[in-house]
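Listing S7. Sequence submitted for prediction.
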Amino acid sequence: MKKLLLIIGFASLTYFSGAQELKSYEFPRGDIRFMFYNCENLFDTFDDSLKNDESFLPDREHYWTPSKYRKKLYNISKVIMATGQWEPPEIIGLCEIENRKVLNDLTKKTGLKKFNYRIIHKESPDKRGIDVAMLYRPDKFYPLIYKTFKITFPFDSDKPTRDILYVKGIDDFKDTLHIFINHWPSRWGGQNETDRKRRFVASVLRNIVDSLFSAENNPDIIIAGDLNDYPTNNSVIKDLKALTDFNNPKSEELYNLAWYLQEIKHQGSHKHAGEWGVLDQIIVSGNLLNKLNKLYTSPDNVHVLNAPFLLEDDNNYTGKKPFRTYTGFRFHDGYSDHLPVYLDLFRK
């Protein structure tokens, strides 16, 4: 089993050309592996009268039956195990999960059960009923506080979006981490038409981070999520102010490792109209890029898991694409339209 996980855990470089080159590498595993994954519509099979979840019911468009739900849980757990290599990630950020029930089922009714993952989750006002969440292994991480930051658009208050989840905790060596899990507004309706919503969320997050920089001395911060923007978009560069020059990092600044992943490593976590890009981003504070820090990382330690089982042939364009659960309303028995991203942290 250990050998199998090592094999499927190898990441592959993904190029933006139509044809993907799949070259397998074994990356050294850090002392803490942090993972983020957009699960793509991890719904249970029950109707929530307060949410627009009707299409994921047994008698509706997706014919979302208990057997399909169980297979989805198994598939997500397989991805988590593969991302961890010989043991699953210590900390996991998730998005597109419906509620605490699906998180309980994922952590208690799959092979993840033996790792005793704990859940941090709070229902958000998103009308579809999809939330963000964090899982952690209690032998490796202990949360001190957590809270959610609600997003209310002053220009569109009738359409709430997902909360930002904030967790402050310590690892098993008493190092403090500040983690923000995000799922910014989608591009549905047009990139330009929805741009100001993502820029608004980015500015809210930046204000929160600035307050943290003021309150804490050289905090170790991880920001992760499906931002529905790329590392080169204004929301990330101008509003969140995530820098891309990793030389001489400053502890009170943010640095976008996803930019390095996309622009230097030429990897992608999502494919749209034949083009790969990194919507699923990991951004860190400069202190984590300091090798003199007790916990540290580098741009080379962020990866996309694009193992072969997560991909299928792209018949409309060229190369490969993510192997999804559905294509339209046809059950495809895949995983997600996104690939997971992960970051290794090392101890000095």
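Caption to Listing S7: primary sequence and predicted structure tokens for the chain studied. The helical segments are 2-8, 66-84, 100-108, 191-215, 234-239, 257-264. Residues 204 and 247 are 27 Å apart (CA to CA).
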